[in-house]
Design goal:
- With about 290 residues, the chain is an all-alpha fold.
- It has one domain (about 20-155, about 165-290).
- It contains nine helices and no strands.
- It has helices spanning about 20-35, 40-60, 65-75, 80-115, 120-150, 165-195, 205-210, 230-240, 245-290.
- Helix 1 runs parallel beside helix 6 (about 165-195) and helix 2 (about 40-60) packs antiparallel against helix 6 (about 165-195).
- The protein is elongated and about 75 Å long.
- One of its GO terms (biological process) is shoot system development.
- InterPro entries: BPS1_pln (IPR004320).
C-alpha cells in the first residue's frame, strides 16, 4: 500500500484506558502495513480489514463514560463540530468509491462471460470495449476523489482546552488519528484504481506473454511492480491479438476470475466500512445531543 497521507503517531498517556491502547496498537499495525506493502488489491483489502478493526475499537471508545463526558461538556464549541465533520465526509467518499467498485466488478463479470464466446463474436469485442471504457471512467472518478480527499483537514482540533483537559485531549487525538488513517487507506485504494489504461499495443508478443505469465492468477504477490489492473490490460491485448490461442484464453480467464474475486473482497470491505462510518457518526451525534 502506498502512503500518500502522512499519519502522525499518537502520544497518549501511559495510563490510558485499555481501549485507547488497543486503538494505538491497531493504528501502529496499519502504519507498518502501509510502509511494507506494495499497492496490490490484496494489501488494500488487508488495510480495509484493519480499518474495520480500528472502527470497532473506536465504537467501544466512544461508549466509555469518560469519552462521552469529555465531548458532551464542550458540545457547543465550533472546533468540536468541525471535528465531527470528518466521519460525514469519509462517509461520502466511501459511498462514492463503493459505487465505482461495484460498477467495475459488474464489467469484469460481463467480460468473463463474453470471453467464453468464439473469437470474432461481437459480444466479446463489445465487452472488451466496455471494460476499457469503465477503466477510463474509473480513472476520472478516482482523480476527483483524490482531489476531494486532499482538501480534508486531518489536523488535530485547535481548541485552547487541549492543554487543560487531558481526557478531552486524548479523545481529540484518537478521533483525529482514526480519521487520518481512514483517509490514508482510502487514498491508497483510489490510487490503485487510477491505473492508466494501456493506449498502445506492445511492440512484441514476448512482452505480452511475459506479463501474462507473471502470475495474474494471484492477487497477493508482487509482479515486478506491475499492478493487477495493468496485468489484466496486457492479457486483454493478448486475447484480441490474431495470435491468441487456447492457452492465452485460459490465462485471461484465470486472471479475470482472480480479479473479480479480489474486487468482490474490496466491495465487501467497503460495505463494512460504510456501516461502521454510519455507526460512528450516529454515536457522536448521540453524545453531543444529550
Amino acid at each position: 500500500m502506498a502512503n500518500p497521507c502522512h499519519v502522525r503517531s499518537i502520544s497518549l498517556p501511559s495510563r490510558s484506558h485499555p481501549t485507547t491502547l488497543k486503538i494505538q496498537e491497531v493504528l501502529n499495525r496499519l502504519k507498518t502495513l502501509e510502509a511494507s506493502s506494495t499497492s496490490t488489491l490484496g494489501a488494500i483489502c488487508n488495510g480495509l480489514s484493519g480499518l474495520e478493526e480500528l472502527y470497532k475499537c473506536l465504537e467501544e471508545f466512544l461508549s466509555l463514560p469518560s469519552t462521552q463526558q469529555a465531548l458532551s461538556h464542550y458540545r457547543n464549541d465550533k472546533w468540536l463540530n468541525e471535528l465531527l465533520d470528518g466521519p460525514v465526509r469519509l462517509l461520502d467518499i466511501c459511498g462514492t468509491v463503493r459505487d465505482v467498485v461495484s460498477k467495475f466488478e459488474e464489467n469484469v463479470r460481463d467480460l468473463r462471460s463474453a470471453l467464453r464466446r468464439k473469437k470474432g463474436d461481437l459480444c466479446r469485442e463489445s465487452s472488451i470495449s466496455n471494460y476499457i471504457y469503465s477503466k477510463k471512467k474509473m480513472n476520472k472518478d478516482a482523480k476527483k476523489l483524490l482531489a476531494a480527499m486532499k482538501k480534508m483537514d486531518t489536523g488535530a482540533g485547535a481548541s485552547p482546552l487541549l492543554d487543560q483537559d487531558q481526557q478531552l485531549s486524548t479523545v481529540i487525538r484518537v478521533l483525529t488519528e482514526v480519521n487520518a488513517m481512514s483517509i490514508s487507506i482510502f487514498q491508497s485504494l483510489v490510487l490503485f484504481l487510477s491505473t492508466p489504461v494501456l493506449k498502445s499495443k506492445p511492440s512484441k508478443w514476448s512482452l505480452v506473454s511475459k506479463y501474462m505469465h507473471k502470475g495474474i492468477v494471484s492477487c497477493e504477490e508482487k509482479h515486478d511492480n506491475v499492478k493487477e489492473l495493468e496485468n489484466m490490460d496486457f492479457a486483454l491485448r493478448a486475447v484480441s491479438s490474431e495470435r491468441a490461442d487456447l492457452e492465452t484464453m485460459q490465462i485471461a480467464h484465470q486472471g479475470l476470475e482472480a480479479l473479480e474475486f479480489s474486487i468482490k473482497g474490496l466491495d465487501n470491505g467497503l460495505e463494512c466500512m460504510f456501516r461502521h462510518l454510519i455507526k460512528t457518526r450516529a454515536s457522536l451525534l448521540n453524545i453531543i445531543s444529550h
